[in-house]
Design a protein that fits this description.
alpha/beta, binds phosphoenolpyruvate, binds manganese (II) ion, 2 domains, TIM Barrel, 14 strands, 32% helix
């Protein structure tokens, strides 16, 4: 980090100010010019707040050389992180580091037949994980809110039947008490910057699927991951799920460039949700293929046995048959990318 002092700043005051920075654990390299002094901060500057530096009367400019995230940064961890996640059978499934993690299932758990049936179908088609919402973040309080704890129990039954690890969304900290059997905790787009929740998930030892916020920048996504990692939980999967733009043809706009961007900046696995990104079932296969071609480490796809009757997100859900055909194509894409499914 480089701190440029104001022209004519008092020399003694500048040295006093540099001393306060050193107390925050960095070394200072002084460069005294004709009118301005430049401080080069060497060491871990992630704990130094740019804005409070700028608020100081002696400071003219602050330039960050290194990103404000450290644990999520590829600079400090050059190799791709690979997560190993087991369901009930003990077989590990991998995401990242050359492995595609394919997560499939309905938006919401609706009843036993639905979730167990879909779980068996997506497993047969080659999915590695089952998704299904029990606690649903809905725009309207009058829409189906999910089956809650009953939904979790049904997911556990589907896990027992198929052995597939389960992925489901947590909306509030107190729900952690009932998430024991859950294998991957999803943090939804609307909660990406719920810092209290992220801190708590940093203390837990389960993998976290962190979805990009509706209007979150790449740096904000990585800072959200950093919150979880700073608490000691390094098992974070990033998920691009489309962002809000001016266009309303699709539900969101899939930012495919987020894949190489996140993977350049971070070692964490990056997966894509083509269902919420487009909101349109017929667009899901094209975007799923594009995501793999762009380097994604996996997908999370909404699959429903009867999309027309789905209690949530039917329009963007593909059928088990369509998912099975998609998997056949994706295996070829994975082979081109040199990745295992
Ligand atoms: C979901 O996965 O069903 C969901 C609500 O996703 P998002 O948070 O990305 O909208
Ligand atoms: Mn959904």
């Amino acid at each position: 980090m480089i701190v440029v002092m104001k022209p004519g700043a008092n020399r003694e005051e500048v040295h006093w100010f540099a001393g306060t920075l050193e107390k925050q654990g960095v070394k200072i390299h002084f460069s005294e010019g004709m009118s301005q002094t430049v401080l080069g901060l060497v060491g871990d500057t992630s704990g130094i707040d740019e804005e409070s530096l700028l608020a100081h009367h002696l400071v003219d400019k602050v330039i960050r050389v290194q990103e404000p995230y450290k644990r999520a940064n590829r600079l400090f961890h050059p190799h791709d992180t690979r997560l190993a996640i087991s369901g009930s059978g003990g077989t590990a499934r991998y995401i990242g580091g050359g492995h595609l993690g394919i997560i499939a299932g309905p938006c919401s758990v609706e009843n036993r037949d639905q979730i167990v049936g879909i779980a068996m179908a997506v497993k047969k088609a080659g999915a590695g994980f089952l998704r299904g919402g029990a606690f649903k973040p809905r725009t309207s309080p009058y829409s189906f809110q999910g089956l809650g704890c009953e939904g979790l129990d049904l997911l556990l039954e589907a896990k027992k039947e198929t052995g597939l690890p389960i992925v489901t969304e947590l909306m509030a900290i107190h729900q952690l008490e009932v998430f024991d059997g859950v294998d991957v905790i999803q943090v939804g787009a609307r909660n990406m910057q719920n810092f209290t929740l992220l801190k708590e998930l940093g203390r837990c030892r389960k993998p976290i699927l962190l979805k990009r916020g509706l209007a979150a920048t790449i740096t904000e996504v990585l800072m959200a991951a950093e919150y979880i990692m700073a608490g000691g939980n390094g098992q974070v999967i990033l998920c691009e799920r489309g962002i809000r733009t001016f266009d309303t043809f699709t539900r969101n706009t899939l930012d495919l460039s987020a894949i190489p961007a996140l993977k350049k900046q971070s070692h964490l696995p990056v997966i894509v949700d083509p269902s919420h990104a487009t909101g349109l079932a017929w667009m899901v296969p094209a975007m799923a293929k594009a995501a793999i071609a762009a380097g994604a480490d996996g997908l999370i796809v909404e699959v429903h046995n009867n999309p027309e009757a789905a209690l949530c997100d039917g329009e963007q859900s593909i059928t088990p048959a369509a998912f099975s055909s998609l998997m056949d194509v994706l295996r070829k894409y994975a082979a081109v990318e040199g990745k295992a499914v």
